[in-house]
Amino acid sequence: MAEITGYDYDIFISYAHDDNHAPEGQAGWVERFVAALESQLKYRRSFKKLEIWRDAHRMSGNTFFNNEIRKAVEASFLFFAFLSTNYRNSCYCQQELQAFSQFNQRHPRSLRIGNHSRIFNLRLRNIPHEQWPPELQGMSGFELFDATSKNEMGFELEPGDKDFSKQLRQVVDAVEKIFAHPDVQPPPQPDALPSSEFSVFFADVADSLRSQRKQLIAEAESWNITPIHKIPPPWPASEHTNRVSEVLQEAQLSIHLFNEWPGREIEDQEDTTYAQVHLRQALACSIPQLIWVPKELKPETIEDPAHRNLLEDLETGDRQGKNYKFMRCNPTELKNYLKKRIEDLQSQVQQAALASTFLVDTHQKDQLQAFQLAQMLMEQGQSVEFSRESFDPIRSLDLFADMAQRVENLIFLFGKVDTQWLRRRIEQVVNIVAAQLQTEDPAMLENVWILKLKGAEDSKPLPKFPRLLRIRTLDNTHSTNVDPACLTQLLHGETA
What is the pTM of this model? Predict the structure, then answer.
């Protein structure tokens, strides 16, 4: 599922194979660009569902334009054309560009969103405007070459260089603006829950409850959770049990609906139903369970003695060591309770995840070391988040403050960025700590570090820290790579 509703891919990468050529064992230029773009959009701008399509096995310029490529082109929201001499001379690349343009002109999607084009012209060479393909005429494009005059063709900017990072930032900003445009995404429903990776298992039910189960699943989907319900009986008992065990490992809650009927029997186990097996397996798991019966259900109306005893034991029996709630109510009360219960569980999951997270805060100028540090922390089993960015500096600061108040561990990377950037960040942290001290909730932010990188030597003094806050400094100015010794100090709370 892509970020943009209605599309399989957010970005289609159209490039000439020769522009990605590299010595054996090394990544090509296009591959490195896409990796940097994906890192920025997914981790710095928080487009977690981002889907980028790139044909990694592109053939030569006379290869036939196949149906797989056409389908990917038509299923993509944005089209990135990497304009070069090779691109201009490739019939295959021209067909991709034409296919995207013609398809969206024939359909109501349009090639423009407000003042923004859905085709991005990424210029790898300084090709004169009059030689551009017709579909790229009228747009300025993004200059990813190093030519300094109109008479030079230039070469691609080297990923990691200052000029490359500057141009990449412009591309990322443009993508974020078009993603956020009101004509792109449908407005959120007022009762929708925040997006999260939250799954609920809906157990099998008696035939007389299938309609109610279906309605409840539809409600859950509208709350932006993932219902797990397509466990298709009849299956042999052993295979079915194994599959249910797998999905229960993915779920955060299980739902079990019962009435006077025990449900469908398992094909190779007499007097045992799928609904009962699902309940038995769920009760053996650590996740909470919600068990419901109709308000008007009376024990004497239940003909099957085993089923009657099961429900009576669930409602009135000893629940010590159990993790279920038994509800006897009407369907509307069940729906309202379920929504509130899911909201509470989502909040608990999010808070638990954030509490153990290292929040890495970095300016784009120091992002390469930030990605390196994050990888090193994750290899040690740590959960890592990047502070989110926006093309609006004020919005970026607000996003940082929102994340910083919900984590225990905060790391600033301070290298090529100016001291004023760090000062504004520390001011936000002071405000967060002061606000937490005024509430009854325990303060979450416990550990704050500044990792000094190459470029932040003694000639670039740190701002003075308020006594309210203990900020520890780690010195990594001796190397362009993150020193493993700094990682050890982070994990054990030490300082340099």
Answer: 0.55
